[in-house]
Structures are given as structure tokens and as C-alpha cells.
TrEMBL record:
Belongs to the universal ribosomal protein uL24 family. One of its GO terms (molecular function) is structural constituent of ribosome. Residues 2-29 form the KOW domain. It comes from Candidatus Yanofskybacteria bacterium RIFCSPLOWO2_02_FULL_44_18. Keywords: Ribonucleoprotein, Ribosomal protein, RNA-binding, rRNA-binding. InterPro entries: KOW (IPR005824), Rib_uL2_dom2 (IPR014722), Ribosomal_uL24 (IPR003256), Ribosomal_uL24_C (IPR057264), Ribosomal_uL24_KOW (IPR041988), Translation_prot_SH3-like_sf (IPR008991). This is Large ribosomal subunit protein uL24. PANTHER family: MITOCHONDRIAL RIBOSOMAL PROTEIN L24. The lineage of its organism: Bacteria, Candidatus Yanofskyibacteriota.
Length: 102
């Protein structure tokens, strides 16, 4: 998986199409990512102590990694990611402007 935690991405499909966010978690075995503020669900939480009220919270849910595109830092556009060998190390590059992605 070429996306990493902390990357800025844009949703390319689904109910949040066109929205931007930061990756909070990556699950490579399932090919899923969690994006800050996107794909929110309502979850009912029970009261933990007597006298405390239960509540409904909004929580981010995972989405398929293929439905998100990385936003390049150099050209500020959603792009695909390529890999290049640089002194024996794999480096991620932007497919649109060939800039190195940090």
C-alpha cells in the first residue's frame, strides 16, 4: 500500500467525494484507511457509571484505499503514486509532476 499515516488525501468516490482529509490509520491487509472527518457514522455509547447518560458519538469509519487519492505537496492536486529507486531506497513520487513525496 502506497498511502501512509499522516498523508493528505481527497476522496474520489462515495458520499464524501471531493472532500479532503488526513489519514489517521492504515490497514494494509484489508486495503482500508481511516480519514479524519470523513465517512462518519453515529455510534450509541452506553453510560459507564450509574447516573451518567449514554450518548451518540460521531466516529470515522474505514474506507477502501482505492477510493482516495493522495494530494501532492508540490502541485496540490490529487494524484496517483509511483515508486522510484533512489540510492537503493524506494521513494514515492507524484505521477503528475514527478516530485518526490515526503
Amino acid at each position: 500500500m502506497k498511502l501512509k499515516k499522516g498523508d493528505n488525501v481527497m476522496m474520489m468516490s462515495g458520499k464524501d467525494k471531493g472532500k479532503k482529509g488526513k489519514i489517521l490509520a492504515v490497514f494494509p491487509s484489508q486495503d482500508k484507511i481511516v480519514i479524519e472527518g470523513l465517512n462518519l457514522i453515529k455510534k450509541a455509547v452506553r453510560a459507564r457509571k450509574q447516573g451518567q447518560k449514554g450518548q451518540i458519538i460521531h466516529k470515522e469509519r474505514s474506507v477502501n484505499a482505492a477510493s482516495a487519492a493522495l494530494i501532492c505537496g508540490a502541485c496540490s492536486k490529487p494524484t496517483r503514486i509511483g515508486l522510484r529507486l533512489d540510492n537503493g531506497n524506494k521513494v514515492r513520487i507524484c505521477k503528475k509532476c514527478n516530485a518526490e513525496i515526503k
